UniProtKB/TrEMBL annotation:
Name under which the protein is recorded: Olfactory receptor 7G1
UniProt keyword annotations, A-Z: G-protein coupled receptor, Membrane, Receptor, Transducer, Transmembrane, Transmembrane helix
Lineage: Eukaryota, Metazoa, Chordata, Craniata, Vertebrata
A GO MF label: G protein-coupled receptor activity
Stretches assigned to the G-protein coupled receptors family 1 profile domain: 41-109
Pfam family, one: 7tm_4
PROSITE patterns: G_PROTEIN_RECEP_F1_2
A GO CC term attached to the entry: membrane
Amino acid sequence: MEAGNHTDVSEFLLLGLTEDPELQPLIFRLFLSMYLVTILGNLLIILAVSSDPHLHTPMYIFLSNLSFTDICISTTTIPKMLANIQAQDQSITYTGCLSQFFCELAQVLKLACSDTLINIILVHFLFTILGASSVSAIIFSYTRIVCSLLRIPSTGKKYKAFSTCGSHLLVVSLFYGTGFGVYISSVLTDSPGNSAVASVMYTVVPQMLNPFIYSLRNRDMKEALRKIINRRKIC
């Protein structure tokens, strides 16, 4: 067997938002609250859609699938973050890191001992292609939606539809804006702290806001939730 240098990575250290120990309890309570709101809000949507036959339509089934996805995304990252904050331990195993659907490649590439220029170019090229195609699809979709809304005769219904679309665009802008900012900042500056904050903004906040924007403002959804609550009271 040939002799050589071998390096096996057994664990990584997660980048925290701050190293100030006095702020750790505040951050723990903040993310715990956000996680509970995310789980509760999305579970209510899934429960409402599954229990009310009137909501067994493609739109509401899509919303329940979105809620399930939001729960999964939040659960793969936030509980580990909370456990690390509570234990004052930033380590995560290699397997645990892979099992999360989440890694800032720009930060990982900085750990490599070899030249990573080709890798960095490839990462940003793919990010540009995927980001541009998805943003273009969203812009095209909303152009068609706005054209349809302008033909609605009722001013009240038109305002309600524009309000929902505006809220959705706000969350989409938050997701893509912060995601785009992470990769731009990794090229122009070396600020891991700013990247960590931006990563939180597009992996935690949208999943918490989606139930309020897509469903809990919807009249049919609120009626379904009211039936569930009244049923519980009767029981």
